[in-house]
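Q: Is it fine to ask for two folds in a single conversation?
A: Yes, each is treated on its own. Send the first.
Q: Here.
A: Result:
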Amino acid sequence: MATLLMGESINVMFFRRWILIILGLSPLLLGCSTNLRERQLRIREAELARRQEVFAPHALEYQSLLLVRDSLLKRKRPGDRPHWPETIEGIWEANIICSSSNDRKWIVGDRLSQTWQFFSNSTGIFVAVFDNQRCLRVLNGDFAGSTIHLAYAFDSFSHPDVALSVSLHHESTRSMPGELIFFFPENGKAIFSIKLHRGDAFLNL
């Protein structure tokens, strides 16, 4: 009986010792587990950062392609194409009279009769100026409200440093008065009054 009690006492002591050992090691085990999770988290974050770095150029390329696509779609929309209003586009006859000049090429009272054709294409709005069926120049156009502004796009006769500016008022579907100014080198300038009225002629550009 004494031997049995002694054996049970030894077992109890042995069991208690293991419990104390386990309790003593548990903080270390928990610490190891926490360190392992932190290390795994850092590895995942590093892998995610690497993937983002690899994918970044592709993302930028994708965004660029989207911008190009949107730009092409916008160009294909008929409503976005630059054009003159129907009341302006077409043929007009121009009566032009010099009202002021300090350049020897023009004197007050000089008159010009020309045909102007307002047209548009995918690059903008323009006016072709004709004299006896021959195109003298093409003007860039800009239209805001009832005011039209024109300037050189191409001139087959004038010197490159000669500039031209036209301002017209679209007051009706049959008439447009305004002012035309030639600017020459050395502060030369000739000012013309201009009046356009609807013409019935047809010109082939």
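Q: Second one now.
A: Result:
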Amino acid sequence: MTPFGQRLRALREAHGISQAALAQALHVSPAYLSALEHGHRGRPSLGLIHQVNEFFGLIWDDAEEMARLARLSHPRVVLDTAGLSPEATALANRLARDIRKLSPETIRALVQTLDGGSTPMPPPGPKLGPGPRHK
């Protein structure tokens, strides 16, 4: 599951909307929406992000958060370590090999380290706007 897919599912479920109903409102197939929620599809288009924001009535910070999550939601990441140290290349390869073995706590700790010791990523959850706008 991607960060965008996780937030989309949380919003949909919090508003009591089925995947099929949301897919119809967004003019996408239920299969595409399911794949997006489960992380089998990459980043959504800017148009789809806008549609999601409009459907759920998300504005300002909540809308920007959806766009930020979409940017972080490519499920097949490619790293170019050309010109970096051998240690950086080894780390990238090890992370690619072992990421599925890492616990959620370890992942949060790594994110915190990469963020320079700042507050770790918050646990996922819905940021709810005023509610869906049905057309």
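Q: Anything structural to flag on that second result?
A: Two points. The radius of gyration is 17 Å. Helices lie at 3-14, 19-26, 30-38, 46-56, 60-71, 86-98, 104-114.
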